[in-house]
Amino acid sequence: MPSFTVVGLEKFPLVKVGDDLARIIVEAAGANGVVVEDGDVIVVSQKIVSKAEGRLVRLRDVVPSERAREVAAVTGKDARFVELVLQETGRVVKAVPGFLVVEDRRGWVCLNAGIDKSNVSPESDAYLLLPVDPDGSARQIRREVMRLTGKRVSVVICDTYSRPFRRGQTEFAIGVAGVKVFRDYRGERDLFGYVLQVKNVAMVDELACAAELVMGQGNEAVPVAIVKGLKRVELCEESEASVNDLRLAMGEDFFEKSM
User: Average pLDDT of the chain?
Assistant: First the structure.
């Protein structure tokens, strides 16, 4: 019977700038009675990665530009917050009252360049930016976990995003290391012999969603989950996978020129 296990690491300490996340993860696994094994996928919340990397910014230190003031007037957002978003942005996709959708400098289209303040700090003006290089962050965590445990694991860094034309939010992978991004069924046959043409499953996004079910979004304090025993996961060398493989190229976006 196909099955797998997702284990959330409880009693995880609050992460500070400069913390060694890999060591904390391994220690937390031990404290939870979880043995890190070959083939495990360690799913890590973006927030603790950004915290460890010092990606915290306070609005009191931000001086808004004229462009930020213009966009703030349209969206109704604090001009200092808009300035933070613009500094992390490649292009503004849509600015309307209450919403600022951008393509961030990593190439992802999202609200507010992924900048967030939930579960960040009791200070009202503290915001957390995404990691500068999420794939690089995932690789660093993976290498150190493997050094500490001697086990071949993979790492997925996840964050919460809204989805086009659907209410609610789900987890998305924003950084990967050591795991193939897709399970590609194209060219294979289904139960009735039809050749599959487009079925290319974003495995790392599905791993992120599976982990969120035990990690939560509020005060659960479970920022890391370990996925065990999932046979469909295919480990790989770090050079063989990048979260950038998920991103559509500009020419592939058929909404771009729609009426």
Answer: 90
Note whether 176 and 204 are within 8 A (CB): yes
Tens digit of each residue's pLDDT (9 = 90 or more) over 24-76: 999 999 999 999 999 999 999 999 999 999 999 998 999 999 999 999 999 99
- Give the percent of the chain with pLDDT over 70: 93
192 burial class (0-12, 13-18, 19+ CB within 10 angstroms)?
A: exposed
Q: Are 243 and 174 in contact (CB under 8 A)?
A: yes
Look at residue 258 and tell me whether its pLDDT is greater than 50: yes
| pLDDT score at 193 | 82
* Domains of the chain listed by start with CATH number: 1-53+131-242 (3.30.1330.100), 56-129 (3.90.1660.10)
**12 bridge partner residues:** none
